[in-house]
Amino acid sequence: MAPKPPHRTALIGLSSTATTSWASLAHLPGLLSPHGQTLLPITALLNSSVSAARAAITTYNLPPTTKAYGTPATLAADPSIDLVICNTRVDKHITTIIDSVRAGKDVFVEWPVASTLEDINVIVEAAGRSRSRVAVGLQRRWAPPVVKIREVLREGVGGRRLGRVLSADVRAFGGTKDREVLPEGLAYFAERRVGGNPIVIGFAHAFDWVLSVLGDLNPSTVHTKLQLQRPSTRIRDPQTNEITRETTSNVPDLLSLHGALLPSALTTASSTLSFLFRRGQPFPGTPALTFTINCEFGELRVTSFPGLSLETLPGEEPVKIEVHWFEDDKVEEVSWDDSEEEKNLPPVARSVWRTLRAFAEGKEEGDGWVGLKDAARRAEMIESFLVGWEKETKGA
């Protein structure tokens, strides 16, 4: 059972100098909101050194009482910390959270859980022994458009029901802003061993929330084809905007999948999903994401022009949900909205705060947050796609 709030919180990876700043962009706004300061007060930072943690405390104007830690072990040993939030690079996840997991603390770790299945299993086993609650950052399952899609499929619109799902199709473009260029801070996206790349992040987030809508695939029916179309990757200095070097990627940049959905109250015995993901920007004027769900009495279409995250900045076209009713050949737009509290946060921070809030409020796993074993199963499936491609490539 979750302890009662407030949860004294430690942030790992809130750097004052990092090239990428997911912690400051996506986590900090919610934590520093009035509700966040009451529910999850930031009590400590863990960085690569105590001095680096102190620099971040100053940079982000955190309270002077905020503790600064330079090693995961000293953080884990602090009994005044209830929750640890990890935002480091993927290959650092296990070393920064495992001590806190073993100490039985609550932990929120960003997706992917770790860079290898072996490391994920170590974390799962440790959490099982210590009873540590571990949430994983697959927060888009509860993005408002996704929640609305599930509602429409379950309840219909205006008294009309779509019926069961017959087939679904996804066309997704993204994972990085450019199909063959990476900023220096994300150069590791071209290195499979690191564990963070466009497949396990860009594709996986979209794949995960799509399955949260449709239900799981029958593993025995899944067929995938992966390609590395552009192995030569240019690296850009974000300060000067100039290309500084080139590297050779060993991470696929295209994934095509087809499989049968498990039969359920929502689907038929023969329902299928096809999913095409390509790294980088789409053809101009084409949505970054198009998700269509063909049902017995109508078809639902979701389009997102700006990107796969389902979060739009002011001035951008928001995610659109439409239903085409077969009987009268009419198209109806379905509205959705963020909560009033979330509208006070930057768009990129809303889904993260929604999940952190659900976790901290003690909601059951699956009600606003994804648990460790659930995330591990998703990681195992995606790893099987990559391993299959590697075997195929070596055998070619």
From TrEMBL:
Example of a GO MF term: nucleotide binding
Ranges where the Gfo/Idh/MocA-like oxidoreductase N-terminal domain occurs: 8-137
Ranges of residues in domain Gal80p-like C-terminal: 144-303
Gene3D superfamilies: Dihydrodipicolinate Reductase, domain 2 (3.30.360.10), NAD(P)-binding Rossmann-like Domain (3.40.50.720)
Pfam families: Gal80p_C-like, GFO_IDH_MocA
The organism's place on the tree of life at top rank: Eukaryota
Protein name per UniProt: Putative oxidoreductase
